[in-house]
Amino acid sequence: MNGTIGSFSEIAAFAHEVAQDAGSQALQWFRRPIDVSVKADESPVTEADRQVEEAIRARIAGRFPEHSIFGEEYGIKGSFDAPTWVIDPIDGTRSFISGSPLWGTLIALSDNQSSQLGVIEMPALKESWTAAAAAGSWFNASDGTRAPCRTSDRSKLSEAIFYTTSPFYFSDDEREPILEISQSTAMCRFGGDCYNYGLLASGHVDLVIESKLEPYDFMALVPVIEEAGGVITDWEGKRLTLASGKRVIAASNAALHEEALLLLSR
């Protein structure tokens, strides 16, 4: 892939810049009156979601016209056989429309359907995480400092801080093991969307489990978690790709991941 699109560091810098610009654009609508529509899957969408994704697509197409682009609002342009940018203009639209700052812009680049770089941009917080395969995971703070990420060494459920966006996102058969896990951990909190995974990469959160996710929700998270030393898979323990299903588990280390998977498998 590098031979056709330049150095990987240049690509990562480009992705980070695009995510920052997209976040700045989204902020123009944040905490202001905005029309909200409901999509076929009953999730909300705003004009901000659509216009920000259009802007991201235009930037990518202008720089890498041979690449495919897959986004939440406009689907796939091209083929997954080519290097594919995977984008979510506003991850956490419910947070966005209700004034919570815990929404983000997600950008990933996949090759052979596996994520090679990822950006989690939190515009309202002025924080972000960037990661690329074999190049580490980095936290970019609001004061402009940049620091490498490392997940925690808490390896038991009884010690773990567990986050999930909402208990209502789980089906009836999924909810029982999630309840058992929440009662087995040291702390359980709800909310956060993509922010939870950044907190996990930085060692503040130890376990995140979710359902009803799509590739544009999780592809950017994969390198951020893995390059920080964590584990992120589906509920069967399989590595996440563009073909993965909707269930995702991220843990600070392999031991905690395995213990949580055992409960999910019940």
From TrEMBL:
<comment type="pathway">
    <text>Amino-acid biosynthesis; L-histidine biosynthesis; L-histidine from 5-phospho-alpha-D-ribose 1-diphosphate: step 8/9.</text>
</comment>
<feature type="binding site">
    <location>
        <position position="91"/>
    </location>
    <ligand>
        <name>Mg(2+) 1</name>
    </ligand>
</feature>
<dbReference type="InterPro" id="IPR011809">
    <property type="entry name" value="His_9_proposed"/>
</dbReference>
<feature type="binding site">
    <location>
        <position position="72"/>
    </location>
    <ligand>
        <name>Mg(2+) 1</name>
    </ligand>
</feature>
<dbReference type="InterPro" id="IPR051090">
    <property type="entry name" value="Inositol_monoP_superfamily"/>
</dbReference>
<dbReference type="GO" id="GO:0000105">
    <property type="term" value="P:L-histidine biosynthetic process"/>
</dbReference>
<dbReference type="GO" id="GO:0004401">
    <property type="term" value="F:histidinol-phosphatase activity"/>
</dbReference>
<keyword id="KW-0378">Hydrolase</keyword>
<dbReference type="GO" id="GO:0052834">
    <property type="term" value="F:inositol monophosphate phosphatase activity"/>
</dbReference>
<feature type="binding site">
    <location>
        <position position="88"/>
    </location>
    <ligand>
        <name>Mg(2+) 1</name>
    </ligand>
</feature>
<comment type="similarity">
    <text>Belongs to the inositol monophosphatase superfamily.</text>
</comment>
<dbReference type="InterPro" id="IPR000760">
    <property type="entry name" value="Inositol_monophosphatase-like"/>
</dbReference>
<feature type="binding site">
    <location>
        <position position="217"/>
    </location>
    <ligand>
        <name>Mg(2+) 1</name>
    </ligand>
</feature>
<keyword id="KW-0479">Metal-binding</keyword>
<keyword id="KW-0368">Histidine biosynthesis</keyword>
<feature type="binding site">
    <location>
        <position position="90"/>
    </location>
    <ligand>
        <name>Mg(2+) 2</name>
    </ligand>
</feature>
<dbReference type="GO" id="GO:0046872">
    <property type="term" value="F:metal ion binding"/>
</dbReference>
<keyword id="KW-0028">Amino-acid biosynthesis</keyword>
<protein>
    <recommendedName>
        <fullName>Histidinol-phosphatase</fullName>
        <ecNumber>3.1.3.15</ecNumber>
    </recommendedName>
</protein>
<dbReference type="Pfam" id="PF00459">
    <property type="entry name" value="Inositol_P"/>
</dbReference>
<dbReference type="InterPro" id="IPR020583">
    <property type="entry name" value="Inositol_monoP_metal-BS"/>
</dbReference>
<keyword id="KW-0460">Magnesium</keyword>
